[in-house]
Batch of 4 targets.
Target 1
Amino acid sequence: MLTKVSHSINARLDAYLPERRLFLKSDRDTRFIRLRPFTQLVALSIGALSLGWMILATAILLMDSISAGTSREQVARQQSLYEERLNALSEDRDLRAAEASGAQARFGTALEQVAQMQARLLASEQRRRELETGIDVIQNTLRRTIDERDAARAEFLALNATGSGTAEARQRDVAASLAYVTDTLGQTAVQRDGAEKLAAEADEKFAAVASAKRALETRNDVIFGQIEQALKVTVEPLDQMFRDAGLDPESLVDAAKRGYDWQGGPLTPIRLSTRNEAPFAEEVRANSILLGLQEIDQYREAAFKTPFAMPVRTAVRYSSGFGNRRDPFGRGVRGHEGQDMAGAYGSPIYATADGVVTHAGWQSGYGRLVKIRHAYGFETRYAHLAQVRVELGQKVSRGDRIGDMGNSGRSTGTHLHYEVRIGGSPKNPMTFIKAGQNVF
C-alpha cells in the first residue's frame, strides 16, 4: 500500500521534479544514488524552511541591535543632559555661595561704617550740647556783667548826688567802670560769635552724617534684598526635591540641626550693643540672613546623607522596575524590591549618599552585595556585583566607588540591582533618582 502511494506521488511530481541520479565514482567501480521526485521535494522543503528561519532570525537580531543602539543613544543623551544640569547647578550654587560670602563681608564693612558714623554723630551731639551749655554760661555772664554795670552806674549817680569825693576821683572811677564793662562786653561778644560758628559747623556735620547714613541704609537694603532672594532661590529646589521624594523636609532639617555645630565660625549671630539694648533693624535682618545660610547648610547636609544620586554614571538600560513582576526563572509573579539597571560588565558603581558599609560580600540570591547604612533610617543595597571595592565598617561619601557591575548571584545577565529602604521597608529607588535629577 505504501509503495503504491509513494509511486503515485513520485509519478505526479515527475513532471516538475524529474528523477535525478548522483554518480559516485571510485578507483574500482562507479555507483549512483537515485534522487526520486519526493526526495527532492523533501530536501527543497527543508532547505526553504532553513533559509526562512535564517532570514527571520537575522531580522530579529537586527531589530534587537537597532533597538539596543537607540536605547543606548537615548540613555547617553539623558546622561549628558543630566551632567550638564548638574554642572550648571553646581556652578550656580558656587556663584550664590561666593555672592553670599561677598555680601556678608560687605555687610560687615557697612556695619563697621555705620558704627563709626553713629560714634561721630554721638560726638557731634555731645559737642553741640557743650556749645549750648557754653552759650548759656556766656549769656548768664553777660547778664551778670550788665547788672554789675547798672549797679556801678547807680553807685556813681549816688556819689554825685551826695557830692562825696573830688571830681577827678569820680572821673577815674567812671572811666575804670566803663573800660571794665567794655572789655567784658567785647569778650562776651567774641565768645558768642565763636559759639554760634561752632554750632553751625556742628549742624552741617550732623546733616552730612545723616545723609550718608540714609544712603548707606538704602545700599544695605538693596544688598539684603539680593541676599534674601539668593537664599530663597537656593532653598526652594532642595525643599521641592525632598517633597517629590515623599519626605518631610522640616523633619530632615531638624535632624540635621541636632547634629550641627553652632559654636564659633563666620555664622555666629551679630551683636553690636554691649549694654543689652534693643538690636538695630540691620542687625535683626543680618541675623535672619545668617539663619538662612545655616538652613541652607543643613539642607545640604541632609541632601548628601539621603540617596538622591544615580548609582551608575555610564549608559544603562532600565530593565525590571520596582513592584510585582514575572520571575525570570519561571517561578510565577513575585515582588521585586529594587530597580534593575543593565549596562556594560565592570561599569563603576557609586554610593548614592554618605554612610557606613554594613555588608560587603556574598549573600544568597544577591550575589556580591554591598549594603550602606545612611542617616535618617535609610539603607541602600547594590547587588549582583562583579567586584566589591569597600570593606565592612568603612565610611563612604556620596560619589565614592564601591564596586563594579556584574552578573553574580541569582541573575540572568549583567546588571545592577539597586534598592532603597527606609526603616527596613523597600521604597521605589526611581522616586529618589527622579527627585534629585534636577538638583544633583
Target 2
Amino acid sequence: MDYSLAVTDVADEDIRKAIVAPLVAYNESQAGPSQGRPLVVVVRDSANAAIGGLWGSTAYGWLFTQLLVVPTELRGQGVGTQIIRLAEAEAAARGCHGAWLDTFEFQARAFYERIGYVCFGELPNYPEGFSRFFMKKELSALTPVGRHALADVRP
C-alpha cells in the first residue's frame, strides 16, 4: 500500500471523520457500541442568550465534561453546582455510573473536590508552571432527576 504523511494546522471536519471512523469501528468491535450522546446544560441571560454552561457527552457509562463555564457575575452563587448536578442527573438517567473531567491548576480543582470529584491523574507543566488534573466521580448513588426538570431549571 502506498501512502504519504502530511502535517497541517487546518481542522478539516472531513479529515477528522476519516480518522475517527475506523477507530470507532475498532472500539465498538472490542467494547460494543458506546451509546455516545452529547449532553449540554445551557445558562441563558434575560435576553435568552447563551452565556455559559456545560458541554459534554455520555458514552460507555461515563459522563465526560469537556467545558464548564459559569459567568463571572454568577460565580459563588451555586450556579456551577446546579449545572453539574443537572448534567450528573441526566447522565445517571442515561445509565452512567461515573463522571470525569479535567481542569487546570488555576481553574476549579477545589470546586470539583467540594462536589465529590477526586483526582486520578496529573499532567505537570501543562501549561508551563501549572498542572492539568484529571478528576472522576462515582454517580451510582445519584437519583436521576425527571426529564421535565432538566428542560428549564431556574434558581
Target 3
Amino acid sequence: MISVVRAITGAVSWVFDLLMAPFASAPALGMIFISAITAVWALLLFKAVTPQDRLQVTRDKLFGHIYEMGLYQDHLGILSRIQGDLAKANLRYLGFTLPALVALTIPMVLTLGQLEGRYAQRPLQVGEETVLTINVSSDERASLQDIRLETPTGVEVAAGPVRNERAGTLSWRLLATAEGTHELRFLRDESLIGSNELMVGQGLPRLHDSNENTALGILLYPGAPDMSASAGLTGLKIQWPDRETRYLGLEMNWLVAFMVFSLLAGLLLKDLLKVSL
C-alpha cells in the first residue's frame, strides 16, 4: 500500500515540479497560477460529475423559495409550506452535488499536500542554521557512540552530536555555507546507515520537518524525508524555516491564499467554462 501511495505522490510531485519551476523566485505568482489551474480542473470535474440541467433547475427553485419567504413572512401558514419546499429543494441540490464533492476529494488532497510542502516551509539560506535529529533502529542503539555525520562542502557542523541513548537519537546543529542540494550521510564506522538531502537556496521544493511512515502521512506530506532505503534509521527531523509569502504587500498563510485565489478564479471562470454551481 505504501509503495503505491509513494508512486502516486511521486507522479503528482513530478507534475508540480514542472508547473512550479518558472516561479522559483516568485512564490506569490506560483500560488496564483496553481490556484487558477486548480479552479479550472475542479470546475470541469464538477461539470462532468453533476447533472448540470437538473442542478440549475434545483438551484433556481432554491432562490425562488427564498424570495417567497421574504414576500410571505407575515403569513405563517404559507411560510411553513415554503420552508418545507425549501428543505426539499436543498436536499435535492445536495444530492446532485455530493458525488462531485467525493470526486474532488482525492485530487484536492494531493494538491494541498504539494502546496503545504512548498509553501509552509522554505529551504535554508546561506548563513542560517538548523537542527537535524535522527532516530536509529534498535539494532544500532548499542553502537550509538560510533555513528557520525558526514557533511559535504556547503554544510558545516556547528555543534553536536547530542546523543540520547534512551530514545536512540542523535542531534546536530548545522550551518549552511553555500547554496545547493547537499547530501548528508550517516555512518557507523565506515558503513552507510542512511542519508538525506539538505536544501540551501531559493525555489519551491517539497519540504517537511520529519519523515512519515504511513500511507496517509505520505499522501498528506509528499515532502517528508523517505527513510525506506535507510538501513539503520527509523526517523529524521529537520527544522526548516517557515516561509513568509506576501501577496500585494499582504502576508497570508498558504492555505488562506489558496482558498482566496482559487475561489476568485472559480467565480471568474465558471461562466466561461459553462459550469452551473
Target 4
Amino acid sequence: MIGTRPEAIKLAPVAHALAARGLASRIVVTGQHPSLDLRQFGFGAYPRVDLNCAGQANPHAHVRKVAAAMGPVLRAGTDFVVVQGDTSSALGGTLASVRASVPFAHVEAGLRTGDRLRPWPEESYRIRIDRDADLLFAVSDLSAGNLKREAVGGEVHVTGNTGVDALLPVAASLGPARVRERARPRLLVTCHRRESWREGLHSIASALRELVSDAGIEVQFVLHPNPHVQAIMRGLLADHDAIALIDPCIHRELMRRMNEADIVLSDSGGMQEEAPSLGVPLLVLREITERPEGIATGNMRLVGTCPERIVAEVKRLLGDPAAYAAMSRRAYPYGDGRAAPRIATIIDDWLAARRQRLARAASW
C-alpha cells in the first residue's frame, strides 16, 4: 500500500525483492499524495489499484476513508498486505486488513519517541499498526527492543531500513560530494511536520533569513508537496534572493542536492536516514526523534525550531572544522542496503509455513 512519496521510495525495493522470489504483488495507491508519480520507482509493470482517497486536513478522517475503500480490494482476494511507516494510508490499510482477517506486515516497525504528540499523529499510528501486525520489520535492535517491551503479538525481525536500499544505488551514481571551493556555504532545507505549522515554520524561516543576511550563506529550500506548507513558506521566504525555493523534486534530484550541500536542515524522517549514509551533517528541526541512531553515530543533532539555536548551530559547525568533520563521516546506523531481500525472504517463508498449517488443518 502506497499513499506518499516516502512509502513509494521505501516499498519499491520490497516489491522488487518479492518479485525476484516469484511472489506476485499488486500496488494499492491510496491517493494520499494525489500527484505521486510511481514510474520513477519502477512500479510500471505491477498491477495497480487506485483507491482515490486524497489526503485530508483531518488525518483520522483519511484513515477511515482508506480503510473503507480497501475493504472491497481485500474481499476480492488478497493473501497478504504490506504497509510502511506511520501515515494515515498505512493505518487505513491496517484496519482494513484486521477487519478482513488478512495477515499483514509493517515495514519500519518499532520507531518511538515516547511522546504521542511528537510527532502527531504518527507516533500513535505506529503503535496501533504494530499492535496488530503479523510480521514486524524493525530497522535496528533499538526499534526491536521497543516492540518487545510493548509485547506485540507478531514476529519481530531486525532487517534494516529499506530507505537505505533505495538510497545506496543512487548515491553510487552521484559522483563527488560537496564542493568546498564555492564562495558561500550552502544549506539544504526541508520542513513539513504538523507540530511546526503554527509557530515552527515561522521560526525556521526567521533563522534562514538571518543566516543569509548575516552569515553569507545560500539556502536551497525544497518545498513539500503539502499545499498548506508550501503556501506558508512561499509567503515567508519568496522575497529573499539568497534563498532558492525549489518545487518538490524526485528522489534522485533531492539526493543530489543533499550530497552537494554543506549542511542539511530538516524535520524529515527519511532525510535522517539518508544523511548519515551520504556523510552530510544534519541538523534536525525537531526537539525529539524516533530515529536516535544517527545522533549516536554523530551525524545528526537535534536543534528544534528556535531561531537562535538554529543560527548558533549552523555557525558553530561552519566555524569549527573538527566538529564539521566529525558530523561528515559516513555511517550506516539504519542498515546495510539489504533490508528488502531479508523482508522478502521472511514473507515468503512465513506464507509457506502458513499454507502448510492451513493444509494440515483442512486434513483433520
